[in-house]
Design brief:
The structure holds three protein chains of three kinds. Chain A is mostly helical. Chain A has a two-stranded antiparallel sheet with strand order 1-2. In chain A, strand 1 and strand 2 form a beta hairpin. The longest helix of chain A is centred in the first third of the chain and has 32 residues. Chain B folds into three domains: 278 residues, ANL, N-terminal domain (Rossmann fold, 3-Layer(aba) Sandwich), CATH 3.40.50.12780; 192 residues, Roll (Luciferase, domain 3); 179 residues, GMP Synthetase, Chain A, domain 3 (2-Layer Sandwich), CATH 3.30.300. Chain B has 23 helices and 27 strands. The longest helix of chain B is centred in the middle third of the chain and has 22 residues. The two termini of chain B are 42 Å apart. Chain C folds into two domains: 176 residues, Rossmann fold, CATH 3.40.50; 81 residues, no CATH class. In chain C, the strands form two sheets. Chain C has a six-stranded mixed beta sheet with strand order 6-7-8-3-9-10, with helices on both faces. In chain C, strands 2-1-4-5 form a four-stranded antiparallel beta sheet, with helices on one face. In chain C, helix 4 runs parallel beside helix 7 and helix 6 packs across helix 7. Chain C is globular, with a radius of gyration of 19 Å. The chains are: A mainly alpha, B alpha/beta, C alpha/beta. The interface between A and C is medium-sized, with 22 and 31 residues.
Chain lengths: 327, 656, 267
């Protein structure tokens, strides 16, 4: 009985007892969820357009962040006087590099493999992963680096709000992250819903051959989505890097995206966002209120547990298209 | 009545007035290529003048008849006014008329010109050209497909209008001439000839004068408080009196805007976009709409469905009373308010009824549940009774006195009399001047003192003082004791129960009334499923004692409602049976339009009729049937007969 | 149904597309074997044959989905050994598919708008903001697309996601999308498959109208022989990847090899 009490009653008593702590936990969950959603978004974009699960999405985050920081160092070394100028130049160059990467991936990886089974393309993204690890290490070295958050005018420190009978502290960088991610998601949605390229992308997602027959160029679409995924990766890298540091170990955050995708579906942008938020908030709540019951380590599997619970009821994910088997 | 009619007694004169008084307000809208186009009254006058001049240059002159063939499109309505401007008489024809009907009307009306919608209509007319030696010109609205046609007797309306416009610009005196033409139109002249679709025999051309049309429309515009801010969607056939009256004539008189849908299939979507304030729909359309809503709700999530059904229940309790301005408890008002926010409002929005102030239905009896449903969600749906010969309105229900089984008191300035045989006679301001070129038939429907025979039997209800239409006059019979027997009236009352699909009543020349019923397999079948009643066939279900019990209650209810009318109390149902098979058009028992052929059924089931009247409690019957694959077979059955008790008429009155 | 012969001669012009000696194989299986034929400007050309004759493969070769191992394709005077889908589309070849390939999640309107892809030129910047030239362009294309919607009488389903439409209407939307490309050559892969008689009549009417009023050259694959004989000017017959006959409907009907192929006589 005692264990049931601890699982089903006690955590809620705690929540009710200290609402400020609950708000704090929810906020942290929201921030984490936003970042998860952002990573998942990278996967969804590419999956929608080409049906490929891009294993390299995680390393793209690291590669983008490394490029940004590495180029910044180079620029400072080359004598660019002010920190912010170098930072923004580096940002522009990093964006350019992601563009070139997108272009190269389409030319070297995707185009030769057109009409091959999806599993082959999936394997190709493995290759891409190891190439990027090797290439990144070769150019920028393997040591962890500091993200140039301050130079990019990202705020630091924290603000405290008096609410719910106590205090809630918010990191300014987190607030910035939430704002930036929101703007980015809104921008991407607008782009894909309202522009011609967006329409073409949705067309490609629906039917390759129909898209080809009306003259939509798959190559162009692929470059666009890989570039968009690259921008998403760069943003993720900056935000995540600012909270810790930039290193190759960062790529495991890609694993965080998996439960989000399971939850949100592989093809839905809103799904990625809502899924990310559910996982982020669920994880923080679980860790804080139920974690002590089970000891540490709950973080590594809780997200999957939440996703599995959902899967039991909605196999197609939250927003995925209903899969109807036609006989 | 005469003083205003003197000045504006024709539609062209009204158009001139509207262009002056409401010049910048919309007169017409039409969805074309996905976009709503709109024309102001001033623009319409401008187009109609150019069009009329163009037509006169093709040879249209005073007294000519001009056929108008097609669906609701602005240029066809303008063709009507343009013809009237020249003193010619428009003759609208249903767009879906087959070539033969079309030929009959065009020939009978002796048209020299035809304004048609598109290639389809041009083809149709050209296929019967040999029967129309007097037809000189065809003008068409939609040019698609007609480019390569021989244009020696064919013009696009666009060209005719452009030609008129050019001539007007070149010679200003033509403008004065047009003003003269408009001033010369006479209210007593024929304004339009509407051919009745002719359920009985060949169609007749109902001639309406401008003066009478406008007088009638002025009355009802006042009755329903219509003005230039109203909007109506013209989606019912342009050649039908309802469209010509409700939309065209009332629109001209009140100066309101008429919107034409993109095509017949989009009418429902267009309705939503336009959001009309005045709306008409026959009961069949209302029923189809409701069915669509119900099906959509079945697909909705459980919460939505629960919410929907709960608030529809609330609406059923309070909605009509609120609409009628009766007293309703405060909780009822609050619940209804919430329901309006959550369910009725969105529902009306989906149906395109959000802005409707006045809605009418007519044409056939409407089920009380269906009628109540729309009224309960706040649609001010009323009934009217009318005829082409009356230029529509004979009766209509005023706000606040609405009943599903009556059609209202006499419309303003309409005089109604009930003949001895129960037939409804009327004299109305909009009344026709005669059938075109058919004095014999005109004389037939007019009484010596100038009343029009409607052909419908009816009576004034004691309780409400409103007219009740019970049947076609020729179908109304008498029981042996002289009581009026209106089979369709009784059958309709029975058919409003979902369990009863078809009913056939007998009683003419007999001692009392009996009915044969068909159960509705879907409704009764699902009842059987819910109540664990096992059955293997239609026949078995129809003969089941529990089904008989259930239908007995329905019949008893009909008897109670019959008892409430003094006229009908004697025609209560004494005995009934449930037929062992469904009446079927393949067996000749129904017409192809699903109407019962009473005589044929009586012949076919003669043993059953005999049993209904000789007091036996059951009867054997075997009938030949046609199966779906065309094979023939014989069904035999022993059909049970139930006796009913009759409700005394006086008892009902006391209870009420 | 067809116009009289003398008008035929004026309507039909030079060779628009010719395939010469085309062979296509998947692994070891030969789908098309040394087939040559041409399609003339303004004609309705039918490709018929029993199941597995290589008809659809032929259309796929023409619009660049399949790359033949051998042979040449000459389109508007330019000879290639293979077509690429983008080249075909921008060169004016539009097509429909045997089992309907639509963008299922999009409305009928958006599907047909997608057919305008190649006609849109305004740069990306304006696109982003839907202002200025992009807005004007969008309106202009929308107008064109609305003409097609009007022509095909599908106003009522404009906003309906095509996945929810019945099959016959999906086929019509697909035709609309192809027409939106203002094609010079329209390839129709079994435009009437799975339709009832009324829908077939409608579709035949649309095909004839497209051919007559827009002068579009049409190549179609169809199983319904009545339709083929009524609609087409010339017919090419394939069987087991080889051409066995080519000529007017009447000639083909009398051809012994064709009769054998359809009756399943062993080779």
């Amino acid at each position: 009985m005692d264990i049931l009490y601890k699982i089903f009653i006690d955590p809620f008593m705690q929540m009710g007892g200290a609402p400020d702590l609950l708000v704090q936990t929810l906020w942290e969950g929201l921030v984490a969820g936003m970042l998860y959603a952002l990573i998942a978004l990278g996967f969804v974009l590419i999956f929608k357009a080409s049906g490929v699960f891009n294993f390299a999405q995680g390393i793209m985050v690291v590669f983008a962040a490394l490029t940004l920081v590495g180029v910044y160092d180079l620029l400072r070394g080359a004598g660019v006087p002010s920190g912010w100028l170098a930072a923004y130049l580096a940002l522009a160059i990093a964006l350019g590099v992601m563009g070139i990467l997108a272009f190269a991936v389409e030319r070297v990886v995707l185009r030769p493999l057109v009409n091959q089974p999806d599993i082959i393309l999936f394997m190709a993204t493995f290759g891409l992963t190891y190439f990027l690890i090797g290439f990144g290490e070769f150019v920028f070295g393997g040591n962890p680096k500091r993200m140039i958050a301050g130079e990019l005018n990202l705020p630091s420190g924290a603000v405290e709000f008096k609410m719910a009978g106590g205090f809630v502290a918010m990191q300014k960088i987190d607030i910035a992250a939430v704002l930036i991610v929101s703007v980015m998601v809104a921008g991407l949605s607008f782009f894909f819903q309202r522009t011609r390229i967006g329409r073409a992308l949705r067309a490609v997602a629906d039917s390759h051959k129909a898209a080809l027959s009306v003259g939509i160029s798959l190559e162009q679409i692929w470059v666009v989505v890989w570039f968009a995924a690259g921008i998403v990766a760069l943003t993720t890298g900056i935000m995540w890097g600012a909270r810790s540091e930039v290193s190759f170990s960062l790529q495991i955050i890609a694993l965080k995206a998996l439960p989000v995708l399971i939850l949100g579906g592989f093809t839905s942008i809103p799904g990625a966002i809502v899924g990310g938020l559910i996982i982020g908030i669920g994880e923080k709540l679980g860790e804080f209120y139920w974690g002590p019951l089970l000891g540490s380590g709950i973080e590594s599997w809780l997200a999957y547990f939440i996703a599995l619970l959902f899967l039991l009821f909605r196999p197609q994910g939250l927003f995925g298209e209903k899969i109807i088997e036609r006989i | 009545m005469a003083s205003t009619a003197d000045t504006r007694d024709t539609f062209p004169k009204l158009l001139v007035r509207n262009a002056r008084d409401f010049g910048a307000r919309p007169s017409m809208r039409h969805k074309d290529l996905g976009v709503w186009q709109s024309w102001t009254w001033a623009e319409v006058l401008d187009i109609v003048r150019a069009y009329a001049l163009g037509l006169s240059r093709l040879g249209v002159k005073r007294g000519d008849t001009v056929a108008i063939v097609g669906s609701n499109r602005p240029k066809l309505y303008w063709s009507i006014v343009a013809a009237q401007t020249l003193g010619a008489v428009p003759v609208p024809v249903y767009a879906d008329a087959v070539a033969d009907e079309l030929a009959f009307v065009l020939q009978h009306a002796d048209v020299r010109f035809a304004a048609v919608e598109d290639q389809e209509q041009v083809d149709k007319i050209q296929s019967v050209m040999d029967r129309l030696p007097n037809l000189e010109w065809l003008v068409y609205d939609e040019p698609r497909g007609l480019r390569d046609y021989d244009h020696s007797r064919l013009r696009s309306m666009e060209d005719v209008i452009a030609d008129g416009r050019k001539a007007l610009a070149a010679d200003p005196r033509l403008g004065d001439w047009l003003d003269g033409e408009i001033a010369a139109t006479k209210g007593s002249d024929p304004s339009i000839i509407l051919y009745t679709s002719g359920t009985t025999g060949t169609s007749k051309g109902v001639v309406l004068s401008g003066e009478r049309s406008i007088t009638a429309a002025t009355d009802t515009v006042k009755f329903d408080h219509l003005d230039e801010n109203d909007v109506a969607l013209a989606y019912l056939p342009l050649a039908w009196v309802g469209d010509h009256y409700l939309n065209f004539a009332q629109g001209m008189v009140a100066g309101f805007c008429m919107a034409c849908p993109e095509n017949a299939e989009t009418a429902m979507a267009d309705l939503r976009e336009i959001g009309p304030t005045f709306y008409f729909a026959p009961p069949r359309t209302l029923e189809a709409l409701l069915t669509r809503v119900m099906i959509r709700m079945e697909d909705a999530s459980a919460i939505k469905r629960k919410l929907f059904h709960y608030f529809i229940g609330v609406a059923r309790r309070y909605g009509e009373r609120i609409l009628n301005g009766e007293s309703v408890p405060l909780t009822g008002r609050i619940l209804y308010g919430i329901g309006n926010l959550l369910v009725y409002g969105p529902l009306k929005n989906v149906l395109g009824f959000s802005r409707v102030r006045t809605a009418y239905t007519a044409g056939e009896a409407i089920g009380p549940d269906l009628f109540a449903f729309y009224r309960s969600i706040g649609l001010n749906l009323k009934q009217l009774y009318g005829q082409t010969e009356a230029f529509l309105y004979v009766t209509c229900q005023p706000d606040g006195a609405i009943y599903s089984d009556t059609v209202g008191p006499a419309a303003p300035h309409v005089d109604i009399r009930i003949a001895d045989n129960g037939e409804v006679l009327f004299k109305s301001p909009g009344m026709f001047t005669g059938y075109f070129r058919d004095e014999a038939k005109t004389a037939e429907v007019l009484t010596p003192d100038g009343y029009v025979k409607t052909g419908d039997a009816g009576f004034f209800d004691d309780k409400t003082g409103q007219l009740k239409i019970i049947d076609r006059a020729k179908d109304v019979g008498k029981l042996k004791d002289g009581t009026l027997f209106a089979p369709k009236y009784i059958e309709n009352k029975l058919k409003f129960f979902p369990n009863i699909r078809e009913a056939v009543a007998y009683g003419d020349g007999r001692d009392f009334v009996t009915v044969m019923l068909n159960i509705d397999l879907t409704a009764v079948g699902s009842w059987a499923e819910r109540n664990n009643v096992a059955y293997a066939s239609y026949q078995e279900l129809a003969g089941h004692p529990m089904v008989y019990n259930m239908l007995e209650k329905n019949v008893a209810e009909v008897n109670r409602s019959l008892a409430a009318d003094k006229m009908m109390a004697g025609a209560q149902i004494r005995r009934f049976l449930i037929l062992h098979k469904e009446l079927d058009a393949d067996d000749g028992e129904l017409t192809r339009t699903q109407k019962v052929r009473r005589g044929f059924v009586a012949e076919r089931y003669a043993p059953l009729i005999t049993a209904l009247y000789d007091g036996s409690s059951e009867a054997d019957i075997s009938t030949e049937v046609t199966f779906e694959d065309g094979r023939k077979g014989v069904i035999s059955a022993r059909v049970k007969i139930r006796d009913m008790t009759v409700v005394p008429a006086a008892a009902m009155e006391k209870a009420a | 149904m067809r116009a009289p012969d003398d008008s035929l001669k004026t309507r039909i012009g030079d060779v628009l597309l010719a395939v010469e000696d085309v062979s296509l194989a998947f692994g070891g299986v030969k789908a098309i074997n040394g087939v040559s034929f041409d399609i003339r400007q303004g004609e309705i050309r039918a490709i018929i044959g029993p199941n597995g004759a290589g008809k659809t493969s032929m259309l796929n070769v023409i619009n660049g989905f399949y790359h033949p191992q051998q042979g040449r394709i000459t389109f508007k005077g330019k000879t290639r050994s293979r077509m690429r889908p983008h080249e075909a589309a921008s060169g004016g070849i539009a097509r429909t598919f045997q089992n309907v390939a639509l963008f299922r999640g999009m409305s009928a309107l958006d599907n047909i708008m997608a057919g305008r892809t190649l006609k849109m030129n305004v740069n990306f910047f304006w696109q982003m903001f839907r202002r200025g030239p992009a807005m004007r362009e969008e309106i202009e294309h929308r107008r064109f697309v609305e003409e097609i919607i009007d022509f095909l009488k599908i106003q009522d389903i404009r906003r309906t996601p095509v996945g929810r439409l019945p099959y016959g209407l999906q086929k019509r939307v697909e035709l609309g999308r192809a027409l939106a490309m203002e094609p010079e050559l329209l390839l129709l892969d079994e435009p009437m498959a799975g339709m009832n008689l009324e829908e077939k009549e409608d579709m035949s009417r649309y095909i004839l109208d497209v051919n007559e009023y827009y002068g579009t050259t049409i190549a179609l694959i169809e199983h319904d022989m009545g339709v083929v004989m009524d609609l087409s000017d010339r017919v090419v017959v394939l069987d087991h990847g080889e051409k066995i006959a080519d000529g007017t409907p009447d000639e083909v009907k009398r051809n012994q090899a064709v009769i054998d192929a359809y009756l399943g006589v062993a080779h």
